Amino acid sequence: MLNGFAAYGMWGLVPLFWPLLKPAGAVEILAHRMVWSLAFVAVALLFVRRWAWAGELLRQPRRLGLVTVAAAVITVNWGVYIWAVNAGHVVEASLGYFINPLVTIAMGVLLLKERLRPVQWAAVGIGFTAVLVLTVGYGRPPWISLCLAFSFAVYGLVKKKVGLGGVESLTAETAIQFLPALAYLLWLTAHGEASFVNDGTGHAALLASTGVVTALPLVCFGAAAIRVPLSTLGLLQYLAPLFQFLLGILYFHEAMPPERWAGFALVWLALILLTGDALRAARRPARLAVPAARSVETPASARADV
After folding, report:
1. Strand residue runs (E) in 58-106
2. Alpha helices in 139-209 (DSSP H)
3. Domain limits at 13?
4. For residue 250, what is the DSSP state?
5. pTM
6. Rounded mean pLDDT of 214-231?
7. How many structural domains comprise the chain?
8. Residue 121 to residue 123: CA distance in whole angstroms
9. What is the pLDDT of residue 203?
10. How many Å apart are CA 198 and CA 180, to the nearest integer?
């Protein structure tokens, strides 16, 4: 449980980190994040000697293609998020991760032809209404939120098909990102515009630490996923956008007129419905398994049924 809190807590507090990297622009920060993330996870995997998956991946063009798609989509997600935080849109960025579960469900219906339960339909409908209300509140569609939500939903869908662990997946994705990112950083250096070179060792160290900031929460999440029930992780996932939302209001002092409060309230209502329905659905198989377990003679068989 502690690893789960640590992972989502770090993701929730990351808006405090990106402004420290100014005067670097969002694209330069993004490029450093790609380069240093690969360095961090590559060293970690060398230390634990977990590289067998890489050879298997290289021999499977379809999976490698999916990893390339995942790398492209997460590049958009990371870039938009970094820009949003440093441009003063922390609250709108947090909304993207609040509505991500709703977008994921909608994509499941449209792309995978999944069937929804009535409560799920209600949650998606309320979420759509919330976006309309927030469009009024912002005077424009909340494009930052929508871009983050849709890109992360696509990323999750692709990663599900790839079937790699979190650290391994990050290694593969950042390996694909590495050369374009490094080329951009070298171009900045050649033109005298690289803040990594121009703004002192302290600033350079902060840019290098983007690798740790990216990978460490993922390592904690991986440890939590092994030990913590999926239903508990499902609840913990809302800690990150909640912390980001609170930081946006209380620390960055972003405006929240009544229309935005109304939109967020609708999103939270949709998530409450969605979470309650998921918990009921998770308990239902357990209740059905109890009578079946009583009719089975061996404890091992009973455990297999649950």
Report:
1. none
2. 143-162, 166-190, 195-198, 200-208
3. 2-305
4. I
5. 0.87
6. 78
7. 1
8. 5
9. 97
10. 21
